[in-house]
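Lab manual, section 2.4: Encoding a predicted structure.

Procedure: take the sequence of the chain (223 residues), apply the prediction step described in section 2.3, and record the output as structure tokens. A sample record is shown.
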Amino acid sequence: MRVRKKKHLDERLEKVSNLLINTDISDRNYITSNKQKEYIDLKSIFENDNPLYLEIGCGKGRFCIEYAKRHPEINLLAVEVEPNVIVSAVEAASRENLKNLYFLRTSAEFLPKFLKAESVQRIFLNFSCPYPKNRYATHRLTSPRFLEIYKELLCEKGEIHQKTDNMHFFEYSIENLSSAGFKLQNVSLDLHNSGFEGNIVTEYEERFINEGLPIYRLEAVNK
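Recorded output:
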């Protein structure tokens, strides 16, 4: 079903454009488009050389905003393709006046077009859509095609941190990450009863906790 465009969306996005990195793409074939590099000048944007972290699929921004607050020593780039969603995240970040958080409105497939190889130290995948039907498996953010993208972007020993409420998606992710050569660590089948410290509860996570669902979490290290 087509999502209805939010009222005054373009005007709202324009008001927070200082936090939105322009990613106009004419060639929507990511394989050919990614060959034409348009690298973002991260040093100019963040005005430092701090480590770069990504959150892919930032939703309304609760995680990325709180993480940026807690970790001023890192630069965080929040990625979200849906303008109806990202506008809320950018507006919330703008009210916080954070200097280490910017937003990239694009699909994950196009990240190598804008970010240099081995430039990312950590990727967060928080409650990505599990696409439960097998015919949509390639859309899952831990499918082999996406893992190849992450391996290109991540530096040596860079990490992927994943959280999900979907057991089957979690098992799928573990299988693919292992096959792609990632080393798994800190795997939890019930995050909120694991003693893990420092967790930031996302919007979806709060709902799942209230429904009594376990939260699955892992870390995958790029070897």
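Check your result against the sample. The chain has nine helices and eight strands.
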